[in-house]
Here is the input.
Amino acid sequence: MEIRQLKTFINIVKLGNFSHAAQFSGYTQSTITTHIQLLEKELNTLLFERFGQQISLTDDGQHLYDYAEKIIKLEDDAKNALNKSNIPCGPLIIGIPESLCVFRMTSLLKEYSSLYPDVELKIKYGTSNDFRILLRKKVMDLALFLEPSIIDPDLTNTPLWPEPIVFVTYPNNELTKLTELHPKMLNDQTLVLVESDSNYRILLEKILQKEGVHLKTVLEVGQIQAIKQLIMQNFGITLLPLVSVAKEVDAGELVLLPWKGPDINVTAFLVHHKDRWVNHPMKAFVKLLQERLINNCT
Here is the structure.
């Protein structure tokens, strides 16, 4: 019985299926399956019952889960107790929205990996809602949220910097002639937007619903780079963090629109579960974030 097999087992239980556990841990699904098969062979029992795509723990699986959590916690406690040098090492899993990871934090993440080579750094893309689930299941250490505010009592949050959200379009769009863009002016426009659970998209949709605005088309695209390419091909308009389009705006490939509707701005927050012990890798990341980014973004 190996620690990595037990961690795989715990992740499957917490995330609900083999494919999610594989995606989260960075293993292939065949590796995840092998970990469980080896555990079942060694323990001479079945750990999961399978009903099509659904799985549930057997009685023996539940017993193992109780022990596995204790074993993993003891491993973490032992590492923390023996790591008296305060040199960060071990795993660190951070959730970061694409716009922050790609357009704000690339250099910081590279520097962190260089400074602390013994930290097993894993970065996960997603939205605040994705990260909430993983933080509460304690399979993620830290996350950055983009939200107007955070009121979750079980999550500890630190406001970092305001993240301006802007409308942009291609240079020849008729809307670029406006001196003010009001919500009603979006009637019959084509919008290319990020995922539906993105907070700035949710804010926009509430504004449009209140104003009774009818859009011609809403195209949902999962990656910001793909959204920008569509807009530069005269597809319509989009709503994105300013940092993610600044380069194209400066180059004249995209044009900012003068939004005069209600605020759609959000703030970047650093978040972890209130019961999560802040270990050396987490402390080192927070310190570097404060030194390199916070002062430059506020």
Notes: The chain has three domains: 1-82, 89-163+266-298, 165-264. DSSP finds eleven helices and twelve strands in the chain. The two ends are 49 Å apart (CA to CA). The chain has a mean pLDDT of 89.
